[in-house]
Amino acid sequence: MKAKKVTKAIFPVAGLGTRFLPATKSIPKEIMTLVDRPLIQYAIDEARAAGIKEFIFVTSRGKSALEDYFDNAPELESALKKSGKDDLLEILKETNMDSGAIAYIRQNRPLGLGHAVWCARRLVGNEPFAVLLPDDVIAAEKPCLQQMVEAYAETGGNMVAAMEVAPERTSSYGVLDIGEDMGSIVKAKGMVEKPAKGTAPSNLAVIGRYILSPKVMTNLNRMKQGAGGEIQLTDAIAEEVADGNVFGYRFRGQRYDCGSKAGFLQATVAFGLSRPDLRDEFGAYLHDMIALQKAAQ
Ligand code: UTP
Questions:
Q1: Is the pLDDT assigned to residue 292 strictly greater than 90?
Q2: The pTM is what?
């Protein structure tokens, strides 16, 4: 099957981020920093690598720091230029977005991920689109969304990033009911959001990367509140299962749940250790810390 090119991506960033209070009282979760880049920068870089040209942010009150982050900073740039800090100017370039490439739309009440995605329906129109949740950060040789775009070129339909989780963790995720297992791609025969303990159809969990057909937007038009009183994206995707149009993609890479404190700390360690400028000092420090802890036990 020849699938239409995916050039638009939605970044739902309207959640309350309550797990990171009090920090998120005044800082959007997506601006929180992993080493030296805000979470949102990792998601944008991944989307760019996958060929995304239009970036749609679903925001809410108190997220203006996000809009400023992607704007030009003339005073800062001229100060850096004057002092000859070309390397920093180069780094700043990553944050600049071409005029018209980025759009912000408001979700005026946090009614859930499905509702946040639906808020972008007019900007998406009748085209396939990607959804990236910036608090899922994925370290991968080939960026996760790029892997998915390549797989999607073969399958079309709807594709969700999937990974095996421990059976006792399935109730925290959307979970796929596997119809046909083709290795990295699976065809789903069902999909359920946060199944009650012991009822999950598999341990293949959906994480925050999606490529969706405009049909899912149409389904969202009719959606009522589901699990947790929220409008669930999973339910709108699950409606497409009957037509054999939902695929899970077992991506290659390590996903960090930066929406949780433990996940954020793990990502900080992993990304810190992967940086050539930090590896030696940080690695030695961690090594000493662990030795000290062991000695104290
Ligand atoms: P989460 O489930 O992590 O919720 O949302 P949250 O509000 O961000 O954080 P906690 O649980 O209170 O700590 C997953 C993604 O969906 C977006 C969030 O911004 C996040 O990127 N989202 C969620 C919305 O945009 N709107 C919503 O109504 C809910």
A1: yes
A2: 0.93
Buried-state track 190-205, b at ≥16 Cβ within 10 A, e below 16: ebbbbbeeeebbbbbb
Instruction: Please tell me the distance from the alpha carbon of residue 258 to that of residue 32, in angstroms, as a whole number.
Output: 9
Q: Give the DSSP letter of residue 4.
A: P
- The reported pLDDT for the residue numbered 1 is 55
Q: Which residues line ligand 1 (CB under 6 A)?
A: 12-19, 29, 58, 107, 110-113, 115-116, 133-135, 259
Closest CA to 202 of 159, 249, 167, 246: 167
Q: 29 C-alpha to center of ligand 1: Å?
A: 9
- Atom 22 in ligand 1: which residue has the minimum CA distance? 15
Helix (H) or strand (E) run with residue 290 in it: helix 279-296
Of the candidates 181, 192, 185, the one whose C-alpha atom is nearest the C-alpha of residue 159 is: 185
Which helix (H) or strand (E) segment holds residue 160: the answer is strand 158-164
Two tokens at 270? 């992993």
Selection from 167, 140, 156 nearest residue 251 by Cα: 140
Q: Write the pLDDT tens digit of every residue in 15-56.
A: 989 999 999 998 999 999 999 999 999 999 999 999 999 999
Q: Which domains occur in the chain, in start order?
A: 8-259 (3.90.550.10)
| SS3 assignment, position 230 | coil
Pick the residue whose CA is nearest to atom 10 on ligand 1.
Answer: 17
Residue located nearest, by CA, to atom 4 of ligand 1: 15
| Residue-wise pLDDT tens digits, 131-151 | 999 999 999 999 999 999 999
